[in-house]
Amino acid sequence: MHINSHFAVGIIIASILNYYFAFKLYEFLLIVFFSFICDFDVLFTKFAKDNNHRMLITHSIIPGIVIIVLGVIFNWIALIISGLSYSIHIIIDTFDWGTNFFYFTKKQVGLKLLISEEEFNHISQYLAKYKNPQSFFDKKYYGNLICLSTEVLIFIGMILFIIKFALNYIIIVIIYPFFLTFHLVRHFNLKKNESN
């Protein structure tokens, strides 16, 4: 799932729980922040097994557990929920491509709905068919109606839940188009590069 959708999931979580806990702005933002921050590990892809950022410790359940434990130690509900928000990101990522969920096993686990077992086991052969290896993943993602429909439904959910439970924080939603634009520009650039 793309960063814009993880951001939207964070808003949904923070909005619903805002009804019960009346978060301060910084707490609301903290929960949202932890819903997408682990995707910035793409900056460290070169250190990952097979250059796959989802093999880094940041795409395992470990950071989420650490954040939850810190929240319990400091008795801060917003930090506990931030850890849950982070963990939900990791769980969601097991559905499309899989993640190194337990980290120490160094195995990508999950349903991996966007990649067949054949493709997964022989990924280098499939990536070699493209000018830019990222085009393989991009094509699979944007060619999947379920992924695209899920993104639309999550966006709608984000709008509905923030209006219903956290209207005073609705301004935060203006960040969503920046993340969406990033992915769309990247998608069209990859597509253009492959067609040239």
Automatic annotation (TrEMBL):
Which chain regions cross the lipid bilayer? Answer: 7-22, 56-78, 141-163, 169-185
List keywords of the entry alphabetically.
Answer: Membrane, Transmembrane, Transmembrane helix
Provide the protein name.
Metal-dependent hydrolase
